[in-house]
From TrEMBL, chain A:
CDD domains reported for this sequence: Commd9
Protein name: COMD9 protein
Ranges for domain COMM: 64-138
InterPro entries per UniProt: COMM (IPR017920), COMMD9 (IPR037360), COMMD9_N (IPR048676)
Coiled coil location: none
PROSITE patterns linked to this entry: COMM
Gene assigned in the entry: Commd9
UniProtKB/TrEMBL annotation, chain B:
Signal peptide extent: none
Organism: Hippolais icterina
Gene Ontology biological process terms from the UniProt entry: negative regulation of DNA-templated transcription; tumor necrosis factor-mediated signaling pathway
Record CDD domains: Commd7
Protein name: COMD7 protein
Any GO molecular function: NF-kappaB binding
Residue span(s) of domain COMM: 109-176
InterPro entries from the UniProt entry: COMM (IPR017920), COMMD4/6/7/8 (IPR047155), COMMD7 (IPR037358)
Amino acid sequence: QLVFALHNLTRHVVYRGLTRAEDILCLFPENFHQNLKNLLTKIILENISAWRNEAQASQISLPRLVDMDWRVDIKTSSDSIARMAVPTCLLQLKIQEDAALCGNNPVVSALTVELSKETLDTMLEGLGRIRDQLSAVANK
Amino acid sequence: VSSQQFSALTEVLFRFLTEPKEVERFLTQLSDFATMNKISLGPLKNIVKSILLVPNGALKRNLSSEQVRADFIALGLSEEKASYFAEQWKVNSPTLARLAVGQTLMINQLIDMEWKFGVTAGSSELEKVGSIFLQLKLVIKKGSQLENVYVELTLPQFYSFLHEMERVKTSLESFS
C-alpha cells in the first residue's frame, strides 16, 4: 500500500510537471510528519527531470531512428554493360520499433536503402526545406 | 536489300533500341517496312532479331564502332552497310549506354520521401510536453513492390542526418 501511494504521488508530480518544492509540499495531507514530508519532497525534486526524460523516451511513437551509417560505392559493370563508373550511395538506418509495444526487448531492424545521385540531391532539397521550416517555427 | 532500304531499317532498329518501351511502334514500323518493300514479315523478323543481337552484345562487351563494323562484315553484310550501321552505333551508343546503366540492379531503391513535423502536446504520462518531432515516410522499391517505411527523428537526430547526407553528396560528387 505504501509503495502504491508513493508511486501515485511521483506519477502525479511528473504528470503535472511540478518543479517547485511548495507545489509538492501542498500535496501532502495536513497532519503529515514534517521531516518526512521535506525528505520526500527533496528526493522527488532530485529525480524529477530524470523521470520526465524517461517518460518522454518511452511514450508511444512511430518507429524511431536509432542509428545511421552510409557508404559510397562505384558500380563498374553489370550484366547489360561491360564498363561504367557510376557512384551510388548505400544508407543503413537502424530503426527501433515502438518502445511501448516491445517492453524490455526493443526490436531493432536495419534497413538498407540505395540512393542514386539524383535521388540524394532531391532528398537534400527536401531536408533543406525541413530545416528552413524548422527555423521559421523556432523564430516565431 | 538496297542501301536505302537498309538505312530505313537501321533507323527503325535504333529508334527501338533507344526507346525500348515502344514495342508496339517498332512492330508497326517493321510491318510497314515489309509491305513497302514487298518482303514477308516472318523472315524479316528473324533477320531483325539477329541484327539486334549485335548492338546488345556490343554494349555488354564495350565494343568500339570499328569492332561492330568488323562483326557485321564477318556476318556477311556488305562493307558499305556495315560502315553505315557502325556509324549509327557510334552516334547512338551514349544513349544506349545510359539506358543500360539505368537498368542496373539497385537494392531497395529509395523512390520518394514525405515528411511532417509537429509538436507533442501531451501524453498519458506527462500533461504538457511541447517537444518537436519529425516524421519521415520513405517509399522504397523492394524487388517489384513498393514499401512504406515510417521513421521518427528527434531534432538533434535530424540535424546530424542532414549533416551526414551533405557529406555523402560531397563524396558522390568527387567521384562523378
